[in-house]
Amino acid sequence: MPRIENIRCQKILDSRGNWTIETKVVLDDGTVAVQPVPSGASVGENEAVYIDEEKASDFVSTSINDVLQGKDPSNQVLVDETLIKMDGTHNKSKLGANSILSVSLAVAKASALSQGKELYEHISVLYSGKEKNNGDLRFPSPIFNIINGGKHARNNLSFQEFILIPALNIPLNKAIEMGASVYKDLKQILSNEDFETGVGDEGGFEPHGLSCDTALDFLQRAVSKQYEAGRDFFFGVDVAAGSFYEDNKYHINEEHLELSSNELIDYYIKLLSKYELIYLEDPLFEKDDTSWKEIYKKLSSKLMIVGDDLVATNPKILEKVIKEKILNSVIVKPNQIGTLTETLEFIRTAKKAKLSVIVSHRSGENPNDTFISDLAVAVNADFIKSGAPARGERVAKYNRLLEIFYGF
């Protein structure tokens, strides 16, 4: 059985030009695995804490290396528990979630490579104890963020993402092809009407002068070029409502609106009556507890009420939220919690409660990082979010899914 021989870490740039880190794990059988970590622009209060990249790199190359040398990389639980114990804080603020996650994921990759397995096959064993064969594969439906707003763009849109969701009966390869086609049609429509076609952090267009309604109108028009809304595609919005919540009001500045929680819920109900909307992510500020119950009561039978900042890929928070019955879908971002083991525990908890699982990227990514694609396949995720079908760091995730799909 191979053992961990050496762990090293260095600073690298992410897709936004910000510093992040990547970790290299070397096993004593010669296996080498490298794993960078992403970062988010819209960060929830419950997320595990990143530390300075220089400190993180130093921790990995010294303290973490010394403790994990000689350990079995296939024992992911032991590796992750060792890292959690070394850190000793509730939010990984001592060693940093970036340090811990880069090591946790790199060890998983090294173990898969050493065993001659695909990464998704190895993660599947960690998740369920069962190895996936090609005939067992179930693929997530892609969620395309094709108009960016909020903290992901340089326009005045309050809502963060306007999303395109292919019908669930469409095979993965066809869904990606169709999503890319609509994306190109949207670009042409925007250009024809003299809107900017520059892109935001996640590859979606970031035109100025739109409201929520006009953004959804553009999506609808782009879909109708070749397809039909409500049959081939549906729409969603990542509201990221906490980013424009202040003094107990939701400030939608481009529409000159200051809404109470109930008024914002009514705003969503109007959108639902106009568009083929099936997805609302973080529709309320994460601490607006009473209102989450209200929106679940009014809309959970009609669309996906998705928690991101609210649950932060934290199994303990999720258990509490499940008891409260305030959502029916969750976002999974490994860097919000900091280890693969805790991420898999979160997914198991969500699946047991029959919640939809959406494995997601972050706004700061790396073109060499396709870990979430393998993760989504390994755990039978319902959806995967990797931005628009554009920009190398976004497309890499879709291309990795296609590689698995075709057995390439």
TrEMBL record:
<keyword id="KW-0670">Pyruvate</keyword>
<protein>
    <recommendedName>
        <fullName>Enolase</fullName>
        <ecNumber>4.2.1.11</ecNumber>
    </recommendedName>
</protein>
<dbReference type="InterPro" id="IPR020811">
    <property type="entry name" value="Enolase_N"/>
</dbReference>
<feature type="binding site">
    <location>
        <position position="238"/>
    </location>
    <ligand>
        <name>Mg(2+)</name>
    </ligand>
</feature>
<feature type="binding site">
    <location>
        <position position="363"/>
    </location>
    <ligand>
        <name>(2R)-2-phosphoglycerate</name>
    </ligand>
</feature>
<dbReference type="InterPro" id="IPR020809">
    <property type="entry name" value="Enolase_CS"/>
</dbReference>
<dbReference type="InterPro" id="IPR000941">
    <property type="entry name" value="Enolase"/>
</dbReference>
<feature type="binding site">
    <location>
        <position position="385"/>
    </location>
    <ligand>
        <name>(2R)-2-phosphoglycerate</name>
    </ligand>
</feature>
<dbReference type="InterPro" id="IPR020810">
    <property type="entry name" value="Enolase_C"/>
</dbReference>
<feature type="binding site">
    <location>
        <position position="362"/>
    </location>
    <ligand>
        <name>(2R)-2-phosphoglycerate</name>
    </ligand>
</feature>
<dbReference type="InterPro" id="IPR029017">
    <property type="entry name" value="Enolase-like_N"/>
</dbReference>
<dbReference type="Pfam" id="PF03952">
    <property type="entry name" value="Enolase_N"/>
</dbReference>
<keyword id="KW-0456">Lyase</keyword>
<dbReference type="GO" id="GO:0006096">
    <property type="term" value="P:glycolytic process"/>
</dbReference>
<feature type="binding site">
    <location>
        <position position="308"/>
    </location>
    <ligand>
        <name>Mg(2+)</name>
    </ligand>
</feature>
<feature type="active site" description="Proton donor">
    <location>
        <position position="202"/>
    </location>
</feature>
<keyword id="KW-0963">Cytoplasm</keyword>
<dbReference type="GO" id="GO:0004634">
    <property type="term" value="F:phosphopyruvate hydratase activity"/>
</dbReference>
<dbReference type="GO" id="GO:0000287">
    <property type="term" value="F:magnesium ion binding"/>
</dbReference>
<feature type="binding site">
    <location>
        <position position="281"/>
    </location>
    <ligand>
        <name>Mg(2+)</name>
    </ligand>
</feature>
<feature type="binding site">
    <location>
        <position position="385"/>
    </location>
    <ligand>
        <name>substrate</name>
    </ligand>
</feature>
<feature type="binding site">
    <location>
        <position position="308"/>
    </location>
    <ligand>
        <name>substrate</name>
    </ligand>
</feature>
<comment type="pathway">
    <text>Carbohydrate degradation; glycolysis; pyruvate from D-glyceraldehyde 3-phosphate: step 4/5.</text>
</comment>
<feature type="domain" description="Enolase C-terminal TIM barrel">
    <location>
        <begin position="136"/>
        <end position="407"/>
    </location>
</feature>
<feature type="binding site">
    <location>
        <position position="333"/>
    </location>
    <ligand>
        <name>(2R)-2-phosphoglycerate</name>
    </ligand>
</feature>
<dbReference type="GO" id="GO:0005576">
    <property type="term" value="C:extracellular region"/>
</dbReference>
<feature type="active site" description="Proton acceptor">
    <location>
        <position position="333"/>
    </location>
</feature>
<feature type="binding site">
    <location>
        <position position="161"/>
    </location>
    <ligand>
        <name>substrate</name>
    </ligand>
</feature>
<feature type="binding site">
    <location>
        <position position="160"/>
    </location>
    <ligand>
        <name>(2R)-2-phosphoglycerate</name>
    </ligand>
</feature>
<feature type="binding site">
    <location>
        <begin position="360"/>
        <end position="363"/>
    </location>
    <ligand>
        <name>substrate</name>
    </ligand>
</feature>
<keyword id="KW-0324">Glycolysis</keyword>
<keyword id="KW-0964">Secreted</keyword>
<dbReference type="GO" id="GO:0000015">
    <property type="term" value="C:phosphopyruvate hydratase complex"/>
</dbReference>
<feature type="binding site">
    <location>
        <position position="152"/>
    </location>
    <ligand>
        <name>substrate</name>
    </ligand>
</feature>
<dbReference type="GO" id="GO:0009986">
    <property type="term" value="C:cell surface"/>
</dbReference>
<comment type="similarity">
    <text>Belongs to the enolase family.</text>
</comment>
<feature type="domain" description="Enolase N-terminal">
    <location>
        <begin position="4"/>
        <end position="123"/>
    </location>
</feature>
<keyword id="KW-0460">Magnesium</keyword>
<dbReference type="InterPro" id="IPR036849">
    <property type="entry name" value="Enolase-like_C_sf"/>
</dbReference>
<dbReference type="Pfam" id="PF00113">
    <property type="entry name" value="Enolase_C"/>
</dbReference>
<comment type="function">
    <text>Catalyzes the reversible conversion of 2-phosphoglycerate (2-PG) into phosphoenolpyruvate (PEP). It is essential for the degradation of carbohydrates via glycolysis.</text>
</comment>
<feature type="binding site">
    <location>
        <position position="281"/>
    </location>
    <ligand>
        <name>substrate</name>
    </ligand>
</feature>
